[in-house]
Amino acid sequence: MSGQAPVAVVTGGARRLGRHLCLRLAARGYDVVILYRRSDEAARALEQEIASTGRRARARAVDVGVEPQVAEAFAEIARAEGRVDLLVNNVGNYNPQPITRLTPAVWDATLAANLSGAYYCSFHALPLMPAHGSIINIGMAGLEGIRANVRGADYYVSKTGLLSLTRSLAVAYADRHIRVNMVSPGQLDNSVDLPPPDQIGETVPLGRAGELQDVAQAVEYLLDASYVTGANIDVAGGYRL
Ligand SMILES: NC(=O)c1ccc[n+]([C@@H]2O[C@H](COP(=O)([O-])OP(=O)(O)OC[C@H]3O[C@@H](n4cnc5c(N)ncnc54)[C@H](OP(=O)(O)O)[C@@H]3O)[C@@H](O)[C@H]2O)c1
């Protein structure tokens, strides 16, 4: 990759929201490193799609919940791309089940991928990040004043931790002019929990599911918002207010 274009690293980048963000960031002029776990075919196709727009893309398999793998992936980024201008911690596994049926193995896997993974990627990206670099963590709506969630407690705990991590990093790295923010989707139109369209107004005041482009718009706002750090933007149509 050239040393000229800014470099964005997106975790969980091969599919769904991550894929959409990779494409939007490439359209904004970023070279993109797509970190993924199992979706080889989708990752290769995205690499090609971005390359066809004239930007560079490189897909790399890594389990973000396994620190040595993350260390190796970022060592490779240091060699290949040489910098990280933007890290998007997008991985966020949601396999809701009642807390009474949760097992330590599921708990550990969720926390490793969703929370430790974001920390490991941040830890290894920050030394490669120039001044005015940025980290954007993908959260979930309603983290402010979160209440009991009997279903999916592991997920909600991971996202609450991610908000705390966002704010801590924002303060710690402000003197390097690195901004750390969070974008928190509500019920996206690809959500496993999506109510039928005629019922969505009961939980989403704006009366529709979120689209990938709604989330990308907030991410792009944060890229431009040079005085915003430690913020968490709900992109949720009023869901969980
Ligand atoms: N969709 C929604 O309605 C919604 C609502 C609120 C918040 N969000 C948040 O938005 C973000 C994206 O959501 P999504 O539904 O697009 O995500 P998703 O489909 O559940 O996951 C995105 C990708 O994460 C990758 N991944 C999972 N575990 C990984 C690991 N340990 N290491 C590396 N990659 C891993 C997977 O890659 P492979 O396919 O390569 O295995 C997967 O394609 C998440 O943080 C989620 O919590 C989504």
If you had to describe this structure to a student in words, what would you say it looks like?
The protein is of the alpha/beta class and 241 residues long. A seven-stranded parallel β-sheet has the order 3-2-1-4-5-6-7, with helices on both faces. The mean pLDDT is 97. The protein has one domain: Rossmann fold. The N and C termini lie far apart (43 Å). The protein is built from six helices and seven strands. NADP nicotinamide-adenine-dinucleotide phosphate binds next to helix 1 and helix 4.
Task: Report the CATH topology name.
Answer: Rossmann fold
**Computed structural class:** alpha/beta
Low-confidence stretches: none
Report the C-alpha radius of gyration, rounded: 17 Å
Instruction: Give the mean pLDDT.
Output: 97
List the helices and strands and how they pair.
Elements: E1 7-11, H1 16-27, E2 31-36, H2 40-51, E3 57-61, H3 67-80, E4 86-89, H4 104-125, E5 134-138, H5 153-172, E6 179-185, H6 212-224, E7 232-235
Parallel strand pairs: 1-2, 1-4, 2-3, 4-5, 5-6, 6-7
Bound molecules: NADP nicotinamide-adenine-dinucleotide phosphate.
Brief digest:
Helix content is 39%, strand content 15%. By secondary structure, the protein is an alpha/beta fold. Helix 3 packs parallel to helix 4 (104-125) and helix 4 packs parallel to helix 5 (153-172).
